[in-house]
UniProtKB/TrEMBL annotation, chain A:
Pfam families: SPC25. PANTHER family: MICROSOMAL SIGNAL PEPTIDASE 25 KDA SUBUNIT, SIGNAL PEPTIDASE COMPLEX SUBUNIT 2. Its main location: endoplasmic reticulum. This is Signal peptidase complex subunit 2. It is found in: Endoplasmic reticulum membrane. It is a multi-pass membrane protein. Belongs to the SPCS2 family. It comes from the Eukaryota. One of its GO terms (cellular component) is signal peptidase complex. The chain crosses the membrane at residues 40-58, 70-90. GO terms for biological process: protein targeting to ER; signal peptide processing. Keywords: Endoplasmic reticulum, Membrane, Transmembrane, Transmembrane helix. Component of the signal peptidase complex (SPC) which catalyzes the cleavage of N-terminal signal sequences from nascent proteins as they are translocated into the lumen of the endoplasmic reticulum. Enhances the enzymatic activity of SPC and facilitates the interactions between different components of the translocation site.
TrEMBL record, chain B:
It is found in: Endoplasmic reticulum membrane. Keywords: Endoplasmic reticulum, Hydrolase, Membrane, Protease, Signal-anchor, Transmembrane, Transmembrane helix. It comes from Friedmanniomyces simplex. This is Signal peptidase complex catalytic subunit SEC11. The keyword Disulfide bond does not apply.
Amino acid sequence: MADTKISTHSLADLKNTTDDALGNYLRGLKFEQDNTKLDVRLAIGYASVVIAAATFAADYKLGWEATKTWTAVAVVAYALLNGAFTYWMWAVEKGCAFAGINVVSKTKKHDPTYYLTVSLADSDSRQITAPFTTWFTADGYFVAKPFQQWLASSIEEIGNADSKNALRDQREDLAAPSPEVELIAQSNGTT
Amino acid sequence: MFSSLGNLQPRQLAAQVLNFALVLSTAFMLWKGLSVFTNSSSPIVVVLSGSMEPAFQRGDLLFLWNRGQETQVGEIVVYNVRGKDIPIVHRVIRRFGGGSAPLQLLTKGDNNAADDTELYARGQSYLDRSKDVIGSVVGYVPFVGYVTILLSEYPWLKTAMLVFMALTVVLQRE
């Protein structure tokens, strides 16, 4: 993974590489991934591809006149499935990078920043952001350490699972305070 | 570039293959949708010869409509010669029958000296509207169809284009 070089000017490459690393990291920490949403998308998508393939085969073997009616039915079915597919991607999945603890990632055009929205079952969702330069070298190599430290330090649940990467005394103000952080703050004499 | 595909989770790989399949199947189903809408097996055709000059040039893209079978003299129709699968674009110069009787048409290219009786299949001296005609011309875009003439005259272009499109879709994850 780390030896794959990407173009640092491609926002899509930056995001996809980071998304993949995020998944690998969280799976490595034994967070359970919930694939239901992606599976539904795959099922809808492949169903529509099968319909198109069947239409193509029927048209190739029997010709237009013989298949007219069924082609009309198939076109309508394909359009409906495609609509459902698009709806599912934009309205249900919404760029989900890791389902289970619900991590949604996104980028904004011309802004090399990784936006992560983390929502856990028992707390409100919160957004953390970091520039991609935190974990990409200038020539486009992904470096895992700073990325994992950023996640473990900013998200309490990941920090608990990966304490050696959780730099709790250096973390950002964005993250909500927790008992552990209060303790560190007290021992340092600051509040 | 390909190594990045190897790193994918099985589900992500399936999603990536799906993206590619959806591009192809959507293009095909749009074409079929247009076929259903116009009731024509081939709703868009490219003019291959100069027999309809000056109305149509080689490479013009024609849009066909095949609903309403009462074709009139003067309309330009596209038909297939029985036994051959080459679409011909010519003007209707005579019609017989129509209404409850089966409609029969005689066609001629504007730029040709004689009518199409010579072009029709052996023993056929007119077109059967419901069997032979794929549609009447209702619109056209000049010249853009020339791409397909090039593609059919230089088959390697077709291969090169397909390979290029496949690679772009598989390697991009936008």
